Amino acid sequence: MLPNIPFLQKNKRKDQSKVFVPSRRDFLKLGSLATGGLILGVNFQCAGPKGESITFAPNVYLSIDSDNQVTLVAHRSEMGTGIRTSLPQIVADELGADWSTIKIVQAEGDEEKYGNQNTDGSFSIRMFYEPMRKAGATARQMLIAAAAADWGVDAAECDTKNGMVQHSGGKSASFGDLVGKLKDMPVPAPESVKLREFSNYNLIGTDVPIYDLKDITIGKAVFGADVDLPNMKIAVVKRSPVIGAKIISYNDEKALAVPGVVQVVKIEGSGFPPGLDKALEGVAVIAENTWSAIKGREALEVEWDLGENQNYNSADQLAEMLQSTKTKGKVRRERGDFDGANRSASKKIERTFEAPFYAHATIEPPAAIAHVKEDGSCEVWAPSQHPQWARGAVAGALGIDVSQVKVNVTLLGGGFGRKSKPDFVAEAALLSKAAKAPVRVQWTREDDLHFDFFHSHSAQRIIASLDSSGNLTGWNHHTVFPAIGSTSSKEELHPSDGEMGLGCVDFPFDVPNIRIESHESTGNTRVGWLRSVSNIHHAFAIHSMLDEIAEARGKDPIENALELLGEDKDITFQSEMVDGEYGNYGEKIEDYPWNTGRMKHVIREVATKSNWTANKESGKIMGFAAHKSFLTYVACVVVLEKDSSGKISIPEVFYAVDCGVAVNTDRIRSQFEGGSQFATSLATTSAITFENGQVQQNNFDTYQIIRMPASPKKIHVHIIESQIKPTGVGEPPVPPFIPALANAMYRMNGQRIYKLPFKV
Amino acid sequence: MPKYTLKINGENKEVDAVEDMPLLWVIRDLLGMKGTKFGCGQAFCGACTVHLDGVAVRSCSLQVSAVGDGEVTTIEGLSENGDHPVQKAWVEHIVPQCGYCQSGQIMNAAALLNSNSNPSEAEIEQAMAGNLCRCGTYNRIKDAILTASKSL
Fold first, then answer.
1. What domains can you pick out in chain A, each with its CATH number?
2. What is the dihedral of CA A168, A174, A176, A177, to 10 degrees?
3. What does pTM read for this prediction?
C-alpha cells in the first residue's frame, strides 16, 4: 500500500487544505468574553484572569491576538526548502501583516485539522498557494469590515498594511484593536473572499529570509535529536544486516555490562518484504547516554538467519537488468510504429545507461523521541516529512488508536524523501513502551547508509532511429529498476505508472514513432524515493541521448531540443498510454498542462543567460539539458574548465526555471544552488552497492558526497516572471543537471558517459 | 567513573564520563547543549566541529580524556549575542537551508578566520573541505566567509 504521495497516486487530488472546513476544534469553549454561541469557522480564545487578551483565528493557519501578535501556523515540515517561511509568507502578504513581528509555530501531525502535511513531491506551494492566500484574505476582509463599520466608511476604501487597517482618508487602526469587534462577524463565504491584485503583493515574489535563520546561526534551532525529556533514555539498534533477516538468538551479557546500559530489547521486524513504515528486526541497547548505547551495541552478540536476500549482489542484478532491456518488455506508451521506423531508418543509435543505488545521507541521521505514557498514549518528537504517517505507524506498532498518538514535528536536518518513512519513529515508540520511559532512538551514519530506503539502481536502453534527412523518426526507451512498490509487495516487479511518469513516459518530443517499455526486476532491499525520484536516471538517459542525436543530426543541442519540441502546444500523453495512466504528479492535465512553449522559453532563456552561442564559438566547454519534473520547467547549462594540471572543475552553472508564481525568490535560488550540488554528488561521487545482501558502504569515506573544493562554483538562477499558478522547486533542479554535466564532459574529453557515477 | 572539569564557553563544567566518551556526547548528552551536531561519528562530515583553544576540532572523535585544560568553544559560546562576524555574514547571505550542518560550518569558518583573516577562495575551499553540506549551501558559505573576512 502506497501512502498519500501525489506523484504515485492514481487518483487526482482534491483540495487538501482546511481553510474553509471548520473542524470541531474550531468551536472552542469561550472564556469570560464568550458569546455563548458557536461562530462558524472562527475560533476565539480568551486568556488571562480577566479575559483581557483575545485571539481571533478565522482558520487553522493564522491567529491574531488583541496585543497585535500575528501567529502563523506552518503545517508542512521544514527540511531546508524554506517552506516553513514561504507558506506563512503568503498568508502574511494577503493579510497585510507586519512580517517583522509575526510568529510562526509548527503544527503537530493532524491532517484532519490542517489538511495534507506530507511534505514531499515538491507540492507544498503548488497545493497551498491558493488556500494560504484565501486564509490571509479572509482575515483581512473581516478586519477591514470591522474598521470600515467603525469609521462609517466604504470598505473598498480601506486596505491593510504592516499590521494596520488603513483608510484612504488617513484613519488607521491596528489589527489588535479590531480583534474584539470580530466576535460576532461571520466568516465570509470562500467565493466572496477577494484576493489581492498580484501587483499589490509586498512579500510574494521577494527574498524573504527564512524564519529560523538567526536560531540556526546560534545553535538554538531544534532538530530531531535535540529534544530533551526528563528521564529520557537513548537507544541504538543492531538491525538485520540483510533486509528480511531474522534473529535466531542473541546474548546481551556483555552489552549489559557496559557502563550506562540499562536494558536490551528485541524488536520484532516486519520480515520480507519489509514495508515502508515498519521497524526492522533488531536488538536495541537502551542506555543513559548515546555513547553507552553505541558501545553496548558493539558488545552485543546476535545470531541471524540471514533469510532470502543473503546472496543478493547488486552488480549481478544490474547486469541482468541491462541484459533484459534487449528483450521485449511491457509496453507502457506507444505512438505510431517504432519497429517500422527502425526498419526503414538510415541511421540508428542504440545506447544503454546505468545508475547505482543512492542513499539520502541527510547530515542529520534519523532520530526520534517517543514517550509512551502510563495511560498507553504516546507523544512523539520527530524530524518527520509526513507526521500523519508517523502517527499511524506509531499507532500501528503500539496497537493503539491514532487519537492516542501526538506527533510533534521538529526541524529536519535534511529530508530528501528519507524522513517521509516513519520506521524510525515506530522504533522509538516500541522502545519507549519497553523501557517505560521516554526514549530517543539514535541512528548512526552507518545505520543510515545500511538501512536507508534507497533510490533504486537502474538500467536503460534507448534506440533512436533517424531517416535519410536526419529526422528523428523513432524512439524506443526501455527502463528497468526495482520499484518502490517492491518494498511492500513481491508482486511489484515493474515500475508503477507513477514512477514511469517521472521523466519516462512523459517524453515530450515530436517523434512520430515512440515505444516505451519497462522490464521486471525484484526488490531485495528497501526502495524509496530520493529528491526527484525516477527523474534522476530517466533524465540522465534521455538528455544524454538527445545530445548524441543532436550531434548525429549535425545540430547544436539547444537548437535540436527546440526543434524537437515543435510548435507551442499542450501535450496530453494519456491517449498513448498502454494499460496505464499518465500520472502528471497527481494533478489533472487540464489544470497543469505539459506546455512545450514554456519549456522552449526556459531553454531560450538559459541559452541567453549562459551566452551559449558566443561561448561555444569561443571554445568554452558547456553541456546542456532541459527537463520538466514536478510540473516545473527547467533548463540547465553546465560549464567545465580544465586547469594546467589537468584538473577539471565546474566554474559555472546556469539555470532557467519556470515554476509559475515565484513565492520566495531567495529560496527558489537556494534550491537550485543546492540542487546542483546534490546532483553533482549523484553524478560523480555516490553509489551504494550490495554484496551478499549487505550494503558495502559504511560512512562518508566510502559513500561520498560532494565537498566544497569539487562543488560547482557559481550558480546562476534565472526565474521566469509569471502569474501562472505556482509549482514546486525542491526536486526539479536535480534531473537536468546530471545529463548537462555528462554532456559537458563529452565536450571536454570526447568520451560519452553511460554510467553513473562518473569521474570528473 | 572518572570526573572531568572542562572549560566550555568560559565556564568550568564538571562531568562524570567514561574516558573514551567523545567530547560530542559529553556536550550534547551530559551538558545538554544541543547546538553541536552528530553527523558521522568518524570526523568525516564536520557537523560536530567545536574549537579547542581556538582551533577547529571534530568533537565526535576527540575523547573527553584528551581535552585536558584546553578551552572548548561551542556554537553557543562563539559570541555573546550571535553577532560574531561569521554569524552576521551567515545571516546576510541567508546561508542555511536545513541548517543542521551549519553550527559546524560556522565554527570551522570562524577557526579559519582566526588563523587566516583574509583567505582566498581556494584557501576557503581547502579549509572547509571537511565540512559536508547535503543541502549544498557551499556557494553561500564561501561568499559569507569572504564577507566576514572583510569585516574583521
1. 6-217 (3.30.365.10), 224-308+366-442 (3.30.365.10), 314-359+453-749 (3.30.365.10)
2. -80
3. 0.95
